[in-house]
Amino acid sequence: MYEIESKSKRIIADALECGATDIHFIPITNGYYVQYRVMGVTGHQRKLDLQIAERLVSHFKYQSGMDIGERRKPQSNSMKIECNNSTYDLRISTLPTRYMESMAIRILPQHQFKALVDLPLYQKSFYQLLNITYYRQGLCLITGPTGSGKTTTLYALLEQIRQEKRRSIITIEDPIERPIDEVIQMEVNLKAGVTFANGLRAALRHDPDVMMVGEIRDSETAELAVRASLTGHLVFATLHSSNCYQAVLRMVEYGISKLDLIEACRVIISQRLIVKTCPTCNVRANCVDTRYHERSALYELLNQDSVERVVQGERPNYRSLIQEASLAWALGYMSTSSIEGFDRR
């Protein structure tokens, strides 16, 4: 048992040393592949013997409170781990496959925090985001695919507001990814009947000024978020859509009336992460300038007037993500191969 526990910690430590955000255990006929996701890209790191891999999967399941005897159904849970004198939250999920269980581990540092000013590639985007923190009411949606940095942006916005020390903040998350001092954070718990929708409904009775909904997944949550923003609250929420334009259409699909959406939605943000290329030495990620060791975010923003135009069936004129990426390429921050593979939807 001690050998497996030690090996599990070594895998986590190795992943952290590589700068990985996720670890994947992929079952094959005679063992497992272990993959790390680094800078948004997944690659093979090692192959594990079948017996060792099965014991590792069972160990992580046991430590996170899953049923280690259940291999036919997907499971998910989280756990904390101490590594390199720091605390990390591991969000673990399993899936049954043709051979054995596959397992994915999302690594969530509890000690790292990115300020709002450190997120965007362009300074103008920082000022656009900063302006949002001055809103007193309305709905602010953040969209983008999984791994595009939506939660990081949300936390940075909330931290900026928290520093004022003048507004009460409540969040509903699944799971809580990083504790924030002086902020009331509620975690979704399906077994206890706590969903985004009823968590939001309960939070409204707790006298908040600012609310954050981890994700709008259904029409009930969408309706409650809009209602909260129309009754004097500033509401932040994430939504899965490819761009700002599609986010408006998604909210309409959820049954939100066009009039309410126009009145409630102050801004929609869509974002993507890019690995910067140093414009001086043309090296990705390994430049001697430490500013090029991390990813930066590109943003497109749809303001309230543009939301109204979309709702009325018009196509608004705003700077899209591909235009922002094209500018980054022209300035030397993105390679030709990166811009060619950029999402053009």
The radius of gyration is 21 Å
What's the mean pLDDT score? 89
What fraction strand? 25-35%
> Which regions have little confidence, pLDDT < 50, spanning 5+ residues?
288-292
SSE run: HEEEHEEEHEHEEHEHEHHEEHHH
Report strand order across the widest sheet: 9-8-10-11-7-12-13
- N-to-C CA distance: 49 Å
Q: What is the number of E strands?
A: 13
Q: What is the name of the CATH architecture of the largest domain? A: 3-Layer(aba) Sandwich
Largest sheet: 7 strands, mixed
Q: Give the CATH topology of the largest domain.
A: Rossmann fold
CATH class of the largest domain: Alpha Beta
Q: In total, how many domains does the architecture comprise?
A: 2
Class derived from helix and strand content: alpha/beta
Number of helices: 11
The backbone outline, from C-alpha atoms, is globular
- In CATH, the homologous superfamily of the largest domain goes by the name P-loop containing nucleotide triphosphate hydrolases
Helix amount: 25-40%
